[in-house]
What we know:
The chain is built from twelve helices and no strands. The chain has helices at 4-7, 11-25, 35-42, 46-52, 56-81, 89-97, 106-117, 123-127, 143-146, 159-182, 187-203, 210-214.
Amino acid sequence: MPTATFFRLPEEKRGRLIDACWAELAQVRFTDVSINRIITAAHIPRGSFYQYFDDKDDLIRYLLEDMRQYFITLLRDILVEAKGDLFALPLTAYDRFISQRGDTDPMLALFIQLVTLNKGLDLQNFIGAPQSFPGGRQSFLPDPLWEVVDPALLRHSGREYAEQVFHLACAVLAFAIVETLRDPSQSPRVRELAKERVDLLRYGGAAAGYKEELT
């Protein structure tokens, strides 16, 4: 975590440093991040950097946590507006991340760039919450989101079940975003396909009476 000195910096200087850090992370793998390039771009002495962060790994952890909180806050706001309906998440989030003109949310675009540069980035660990289940397994559904989910809208009210629904909802959202980035002109078609997949997730795909035939 940054030192107290970092948080006491004037807003302009702190912003200049963070912008330089993000610019560096958007261009090279985490392992190739250069403090020299960052301080040159930010116009600060090398010694000053170490008054703010222990090392570049400390810096990267701080930036990723800041990004993580951005996405969690956005998804939490969506769930609050949807009155805890997890099934409303993919389409609403898609509309937040992708404009009608096909433009991408800047933080999302940056995240995609980081994933592209850093193959093997553990996405579940990135968006995950502290250990929540027995056996040390991490939850894919962060605590701030679980707090605003309405379990009454799900077939089962437990957190593990909600986690599975959230996981599938995120898969629908991720596929729609990737397809749109490949060809922004297809955004209306992609959104309609995402809507169909949300309906499948919400209502299932089996014909009426099929469940009874199996029992």
